[in-house]
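Figure S7 source data.
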Amino acid sequence: MKKFQIELQPLNLPLKRRFTISRGSRDEVNNVLVKVHCEGITGIGEAAPNHRYNETQESAMTFLESFGHYETDHPFDVSLLVEMMEEHQGGEYSAKAGLEMAFYDWIGKKLEIPLYKLLQAPGRTGPKTTYTFGIDKPEVMKEKVEESAHYPLLKIKLGTHYDKDIIQAIRELTDKPILVDANEGWKTVEEALDMIQFLDRQNVFVIEQPMPAGCVREMQELRLKSTIPLIADESITGKESLRELSTQFHGINIKLMKTGGISTSLKIIHEARKVGLQIMVGCMIESVIADTASALVGLWADYADVDGHLLLAENPMKGLEILPQGHIQVTDFPGLGLH
Ligand SMILES: [Mg+2]
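Tokens for the predicted magnesium ion complex:
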């Protein structure tokens, strides 16, 4: 029997600059650092609670505290932990992801093997990651374009009444390919189609969540008419029918904090491939800890948006690397590869 001690710490992370999306603004994120200790080895994870799913730093910590210590005869079987957490309480997927991440890190360290090898990833280098611009006045975009000089793909948050002005302001400065994230911001099929037609002439390669989750009929119509691939984000938490989603979108954005962790995300990726969905791996605003776990899952993806840690004023440690051409890469250190 192995006894794991679970240690929690609030992880309050100031952002480089205010970050705005169609739902609101923030200057700081309030995440949770999760550590598991056993046999002198410490596994590290991070939960990034999301208000969209009624989660806060407090609710994540309360869940993990009530889950308590973890004792098991099968420390390498992560599915047992995942089942126990699910039975303990529904929801709180970011907390579950944080604890599972710490366990995976512990397992890799215990076996002295990087997780990309243990999980048999296709390699340790993944797709190019985008660099995200929150919503801002067009005049602020110049600074952001300069800040993102090293990243070849941009992700632009839209969903305002001046979306076209934002894109035009960026296009005066750079012709880099753009991924647009409307965060449910376009309210009718007509509005969305008008934007898609405009964006199709602006070197936009993907659009994330054009309309609100729940607009099923509208999205089905939009999927048939869109000339740009549409990716579900708010419309997928992991519980939905992937076949049903494939009638509304060309792909899905998987985030550890929505699905509850690495193992569930990998299962969803394999199932999604069977129904022809493209895969994007995204992140919340999270530090390099959770982003390194996201990059690990991103090794199986077509698109990566693993830049949460780049938006922070500073990071608690080092982990994933972003190569000069923008590709994500995990390290060869044991476990998640944090150092
Ligand atoms: Mg999104």
